């Protein structure tokens, strides 16, 4: 993983896939900005990284607020002098309801973070990348952005949008030394999955029954793919969606 000394922002890095991604980058020698809406959670991840002789900085940011995204990137560049990679991981889950039962509040809440938040982060990071002459974006989409996901309309819409934004922007900046890719995790051990199973305990057996590997993914497994896409080992890869789902989409 050729990411040593790269400056990397990971949003939603206070837990789950974001935390695993931040610690993986640090393990491979990157300088990591651990961003989360919960500064206390971000600080705990930073403390863990520093304890293991890595370099990290916590920055609080709500990706649904454009000014906070601007501050995130500006603060990163002010501290480290550059930005090599941004991983747009921050996301929230919906209330599990059929489309006609879904509330306008739930729709706006999920779209503002999962879709608009990714757009904000891409827009601000791209301005920095164009000024530098290089950059790399890895978006965290989902299996729900590739196939039907019933009772999940806002989340599904947001993740399909992330896949579309990834591909469209990758074409726009392919000649600018800027790569943009996405990973699409399937059912992965995380707070979002716990939320689903806690709401409907019977879903545990149902979900595992449709996964050929008969298990959930692990956050570290997703993080490995993210770091790989952000590394210099993948210089000819852009506009791709890497699916990590234990065979669920087959």
UniProtKB/TrEMBL annotation:
Keywords: Oxidoreductase
Single annotated GO MF: oxidoreductase activity
Pfam families: adh_short_C2 (PF13561)
Family indicated by similarity: Belongs to the short-chain dehydrogenases/reductases (SDR) family.
Protein name: Short-chain dehydrogenase
Organism: Polaribacter porphyrae
Organism placement in taxonomy: Bacteria, Pseudomonadati, Bacteroidota, Flavobacteriia, Flavobacteriales
């Amino acid at each position: 993983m050729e990411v040593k000394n790269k400056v990397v922002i990971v949003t939603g890095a206070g837990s789950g896939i974001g935390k695993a991604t931040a610690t993986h980058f640090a393990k491979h020698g990157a300088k990591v900005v651990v961003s989360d809406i919960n500064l206390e959670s971000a600080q705990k991840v930073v403390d863990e990284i520093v304890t293991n002789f890595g370099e990290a900085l916590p920055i609080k940011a709500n990706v649904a607020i454009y000014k906070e995204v601007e501050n995130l990137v500006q603060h990163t560049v002010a501290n480290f002098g550059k930005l090599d990679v941004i991983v747009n991981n921050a996301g929230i889950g919906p209330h599990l309801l059929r489309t006609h039962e879904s509330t306008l509040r739930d729709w706006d809440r999920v779209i503002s973070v999962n879709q608009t938040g990714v757009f904000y982060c891409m827009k601000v990071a791209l301005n920095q990348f164009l000024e530098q002459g290089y950059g790399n974006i890895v978006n965290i989409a989902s299996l729900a952005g590739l196939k039907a996901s019933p009772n999940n309309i806002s989340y599904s819409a947001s993740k399909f949008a992330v896949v579309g934004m990834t591909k469209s922007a990758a074409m726009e900046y392919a000649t600018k030394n800027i790569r943009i890719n996405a990973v699409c995790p399937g059912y992965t051990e995380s707070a979002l999955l716990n939320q689903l199973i806690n709401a409907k305990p019977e879903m545990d057996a149902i979900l595992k029954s449709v996964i050929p590997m008969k298990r959930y993914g692990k956050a570290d497994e997703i993080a490995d793919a993210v770091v790989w896409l952000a590394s210099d080992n993948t210089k000819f890869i852009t506009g791709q969606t890497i699916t990590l789902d234990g065979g669920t989409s087959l």
